[in-house]
Amino acid sequence: MENARRRGVIVGGFLAFSYGWIVGTEPLVVPVAAATGWPVALQLQLPDGTERQVELSGSIVEDRKGRDLFQGMLADVTAQQQREQQLEAAAAAERAASDELARVAAVRQSLLTAMSHELRTPLTVVSGWAHTLLRHRGRLTRAQQLQAETAIWEQTERLTLLVDDLVQLGPDRSGREFLAPGPCAAGQLVAATVAASPVASRARVQVPDELEVVVDREQLRRVVTELLSNVAKYAPEGPVDVEVGSYAGSWQLRVSDSGPDLPDGVETEAFEVFSRYHLDHHSPGAGLGLPLVARFVAAHGGDVDLQSRPDGLTVTVTFPLELPAWRPHLKAV
To answer: Can you give the pTM of this predicted structure?
Structure first.
């Protein structure tokens, strides 16, 4: 240890000579004594507060009188290390940009795939019935004309709803722009929506008789509809449990099915626009359902949680009993 201390003093003297600064021996004893080889990396602080990164190379020899002398080279590598850090930061930024481009490309492809189906189907129906009316109106019965007109109207409404959904999911939208809250008997609305859904015959509904909340009724209806639509698509068999309850300043809507569990790592991705967490599923869809649910719930100050179970999936939606402060938005008409 004494030898190491002497070497520290010698190296300290060398650094003091190089930088015009008296370097204490203690900080230098440990790195020099513990070094298994050269160079030794050191960080120095100059009298003006500037920090420098240096590398020390050399050896300690004895002169003719038996005194320890240090011979070597001190290199200031501060600028080099800064350049390396800048290069690493630039490489990280490039990787992030590349990942973002890949994500955007994937979203774009998902959009094209989804929209090609979601738009093609109603447009095909509208085009076919419109062509029939134009070419064969004189030979159609009144009932057939009404069937054609109804089909055109329904598909036009479907397209309008799709466009509205895309607008509400725009990056410049928070969902609060379309919020129209008011008093609502949550249990009754949820029960009525379930009764009109495709899973009504196998739904087990538990809702309170009286639970008055402040919520946008149409958005709540859409939340329930979208969740049950996913159940019908991905869990076509087995019971569906729908529960509503209040808990200390908030109330919850819980939908549990007996379908397949979620693939690993998609709990967050499932809420991204155009994401479909079962990509190999045969049922069509634009991947807007859960993102819309998340957007509507967030606009109310709530949150959505997906919990995969061995025997199915549970979606829990939490709303505050009272909405946070908000400012009505007047929509142009």
So the answer is: 0.54
